[in-house]
Amino acid sequence: MKAELRVVFMGTPEFAVPPLERLVQEHHSVVAVYTQPDQPVGRGRALRMSPVKAAAQRLNLRVVQPDDLKGRAAAEQLALFQPDIIIVAAFGQILPRPVLDMPRYGCLNLHPSLLPRYRGAAPVAAAILAGDGVTGITIMLMDRGLDTGPIIVQEKMAISPEDTTGALSVRLSHLAAQMLPGVLSRWLAGEIKPRPQNDTEATYCSAIKKEDGEIDWQLPASDIWRRVRACQPWPGAYTSWGGRRLEIIEAVVRRGSGGKRVGEVVPGQGGAAFGVSTGDGVLGVIRVQLQGKRAMPAADFLRGQRQLIGAVLPC
To answer: What is the pLDDT of residues 151-171, one digit of tens each?
Structure first.
């Protein structure tokens, strides 16, 4: 690998941090790190930097935070870095044609799914929601479409029954970081021929919204269990109790409803402190968080909420 290769890295969430760190560890010249502008959070609306910005500052790298890359000024600023290649990992902005055409080795995207399955913004959550047993990382050559570019390389990863979006994203990000040095070396040497995606097999997933976490107890327990996992750490899968949001953080599927009403809270079994009757089966609840309180084991929550057993949670 040539040490003089000039790399521009684009990414925003925690998923993008391990690949960035790996580039630095491999002694690549990361001339700039592009990430989303700081976002206001909390009641005080204080600005919070992205995980990638925090990592870039720790690594003493130049940080650029454009509102978008569509204007001439943004393209001219990027051109000043003279990138040989652009590496993208969950950046959160569409790259226009002038940016895509700028680096001589192209723009490579690290996407956490086995494309063409789950093009779009939330592929990790989508794989969990669908009940898939396998996902992976696709490194692709970007074009103007939404995750439609030709595939450079893919590696698979099993999805465990305990995986949440957060936990699986961490493992996938480390897989992407592990893959990156070897793929870059082969790509620059001309040893990889990208293969087009089969568009007839493509599926799409949109970004997860806050309201996607609301639980419909009429669904089967297996569907709700997958939603609990897919919505961790955000926005959380939730119902309401006593006029407050009750988040189900960890759960298991139990068969049979015992003739109970949909949404009725029933005594627990097999490690679950209590269960909730669903459209098919019982969701055993292991860990919860009531709005305004800390997260806790469901057994601890139930000790302070004895009237919960027999109550019917809203659908």
So the answer is: 999 999 999 999 999 999 999
